[in-house]
Write a structure and sequence with these properties.
two-stranded antiparallel ribbon, 15% strand
């Protein structure tokens, strides 16, 4: 199987990528109890440095917004130092790595955040899943409505985190606007039922996301800032009454920002919502478009060849195959991921997946 388009170079903002096989952000809960990245994380990311670019996992921009417990942050000096070990390890292997900046919104839980009630655009809880807490599954709590006069603090948190990401040696940042976390909650009308400047029309619902982009572009410049979206994903009880219209409008609006890239998940984790979101987004958006969710190498090659996408981000395939580009190039067998170890502590199911050369011994 020939994959000439996947292995062609690509200019993504300020970064020239050696291939179009990107590593998608995957929360794997290997940070320590203080949300500091660990040496094990440095090993994990450096193993995957052959990606065109690594998009590192969702990382909290401020205290009190943890949704997973062992999720990393980038809001204090220890966390910055931990991430610096990661970026140094990736750069030592001539890789490129950007950091996904994130606020968990209503997916956060008081059990992880010193009893603090999570914030959201509206006081609507997640109901299609339960929170996986220290003592097992418990219901998500009803969040409190984030008041308009609190929103500047959120924007400032993203901007400070962007500055810290630069100090930590990243090559850029990705704003997490997907999967039912705070910015996505504001954007989609199933979770945003407020009035005022941040509710109602799509322009108002998108306001916080765009203000976060503007604040972080002030730090990095637009050519090192990307954005991730998930128009159909119903994970974390997310729905929109008009996903095609909402996200086509947003894609066109994003042309004003000259971002490094737009990263779009094409499908729903839970299979509840279906549709073609990539075609209208491709028609509306003029910049680099990255696709994600369930691509095979052949499908990715065809999507790039026909101009639908510019690159593909692979998630669990990259988790299970640290040398994924090599395996694609050689049409070699792929390791199977081990879901039971996705969020467990330690190296098992994280840094112990074999390289192709090891597998052939």
């Amino acid at each position: 199987m020939s994959l000439p388009h996947l292995f062609s170079t690509l200019q993504v903002g300020a970064l020239k990528l050696p291939n179009r096989i990107l590593m998608a952000p995957l929360t794997r809960c290997r940070a320590d109890r203080d949300h500091v990245p660990t040496s094990l994380m440095a090993e994990y990311y450096s193993q995957r440095a052959s990606a065109g670019a690594i998009i590192a996992e969702a990382t909290a921009v401020m205290p009190g917004c943890s949704a997973f417990g062992a999720d990393p942050g980038i809001h204090n000096d220890a966390q910055v130092a931990g991430w610096k070990e990661v970026t140094d390890a990736v750069h030592a292997k001539e890789g490129r790595i950007v950091l996904q900046l994130w606020h968990g919104g209503r997916a956060c839980h008081p059990l992880l955040n010193d009893g603090a009630i999570p914030v959201a655009p509206s006081a609507i809880p997640i109901t299609n899943d339960e929170f996986h807490g220290p003592q097992g599954k418990v219901p998500y709590v009803t969040p409190r409505t984030l008041e308009d006069d609190e929103i500047p603090t959120i924007i400032a948190g993203f901007k400070s985190a962007a500055e810290n990401a630069k100090t930590a040696g990243f090559d850029g940042i990705e704003i997490h606007g997907a999967n039912g976390y705070l910015l996505d909650e504001f954007l989609r009308d199933g979770s945003n039922q407020r009035s005022g400047a941040y509710g109602g029309s799509v322009e108002n619902r998108a306001r916080l996301m765009l203000e976060v982009l503007e604040a972080t572009i002030d730090v990095w410049g637009s050519d090192r800032v990307g954005l991730r979206l998930s128009p159909l994903n119903s994970y974390n009880s997310m729905k929109d009454s008009d996903p095609i219209g909402t996200f086509a409008w947003l894609a066109a609006r994003l042309n004003d920002y000259n971002l490094a890239y737009l990263h779009v998940m094409r499908a729903d984790f839970l299979g509840e919502q279906q549709g073609d979101v990539l075609t209208p987004i491709r028609e509306a958006y003029n910049g680099v478009l990255i696709g994600n969710t369930g691509y095979t190498a052949e499908e990715a090659e065809n999507a790039i060849a026909n101009g639908q996408l510019d690159a593909i981000a692979f998630g669990t395939l990259f988790l299970a195959n640290p040398d994924l580009p090599t395996r694609f190039a050689q049409n070699a067998p792929l390791n199977d991921p081990v879901p039971s170890k996705f969020y467990s502590p330690g190296a098992e199911g994280y840094t112990d997946y074999p390289y192709l050369a090891e597998a052939n011994v």
